[in-house]
Design a protein that fits this description.
By secondary structure, the chain is an all-alpha fold. The protein has twelve helices and no strands. The relative contact order is 0.07.
């Protein structure tokens, strides 16, 4: 019961009506809508004076705002706030690549958180219509895109859904139950802070580029070594093949030389044994002898 939260506050806390009213507003903000009026009345009955008036004046959250308050109570919006800071930093530095990546993360995160809000509502017996689901997503998106919207949402006391856009002229007191102190945006970063962030980002980018170049060089070296090893293996294979071919050629020449030599000897023997050859040799011998006899005379 929300009224029980008043019993846990000491007299010192009760003296600060605004703080107490904010605590009651935060407790009421996560009460199912159909129970809100009764819980608010019970809490106001526990209080007195101005505090009772502040509690009675607390507005009932819209269903979409209630779902977002459940997300805050569940601790689900921390990533959205972190992403919001990263988006602002990227915008300050005009980092197009980071903005594109963060934009994709933002859409995924908004979808995931809106789905989780629907689950939290169903766990409490409620249900989100399509329009309420869209309003939840729009509010989460606004918290990611705008620092003031994020601060308002993180109070956990939202009564109306927000829309992303130019919220500078929007009076957030219309969207938050209780005081607005917790929704005050942090001071803008100074020029020195921006310069320091940019220097850090530049150093990180240079480091990433150096790592990328080193990794690429290692890959190129590994590729060259692999190609050289492959070429050496192919050269060894070609050398072995050449030696095999030379050996085969020498064996073929040796095998062919024997029959040729035997054929030549056989041809000579055949000629020498032919009758015509013997007669020609005898005639040549007779002529030579006759010539020598005539010379002697």
């Amino acid at each position: 019961m929300v009224s029980a939260s008043l019993d846990t506050l000491d007299d010192g806390a009760m003296a600060d009506e605004t703080t107490t009213a904010d605590a009651v507003a935060a407790a009421l903000a996560v009460v199912p809508p159909q129970q809100f009026t009764a819980e608010r009345a019970a809490a106001a009955a526990k209080a007195t004076g101005d505090l009772a008036k502040l509690i009675k004046a607390l507005r009932k959250p819209a269903v979409a705002a209630w779902a977002v308050n459940l997300l805050v109570r569940d601790g689900q919006l921390g990533k959205a706030v972190e992403l919001s800071s990263a988006l602002r930093e990227a915008q300050d530095e005009v980092d197009a690549k980071a903005l594109m990546q963060l934009g994709r993360q933002r859409r995924e995160l908004v979808t995931s958180l809106a789905r989780r809000a629907g689950e939290l509502v169903r766990e409490r017996g409620g249900n989100l219509s399509a329009s309420a689901q869209e309003a939840v997503a729009s509010t989460i998106n606004a918290a990611v895109m705008d620092e003031r919207a994020a601060a308002a949402v993180l109070t956990g006391r939202l009564v109306k859904p927000l829309e992303a856009g130019d919220l500078d002229e929007v009076d957030l007191r219309e969207y938050v139950a209780g005081s607005l102190d917790a929704a005050a945006p942090s001071a803008p970063a100074s020029r020195d802070d921006l310069a320091a962030r940019r220097a850090r980002k530049a150093a990180e980018a240079a480091e990433r580029e150096a790592e990328r170049a080193a990794t690429e060089a290692e890959r190129d070296l590994a590729r060259i070594e692999a190609e050289r090893t492959k070429a050496r293996e192919q050269a060894d294979l070609l050398h072995e093949r050449l030696e095999d071919l030379r050996a085969q050629m020498q064996r073929a020449m040796a095998d062919a030389d024997g029959p040729m030599r035997r054929s030549t000897i056989s041809t000579r023997n055949t000629r020498s044994q032919h009758p015509g050859s013997r007669r020609r040799r005898r005639k040549r011998s007779t002529r030579v002898l006759r010539s020598r006899t005539e010379d002697a005379c």
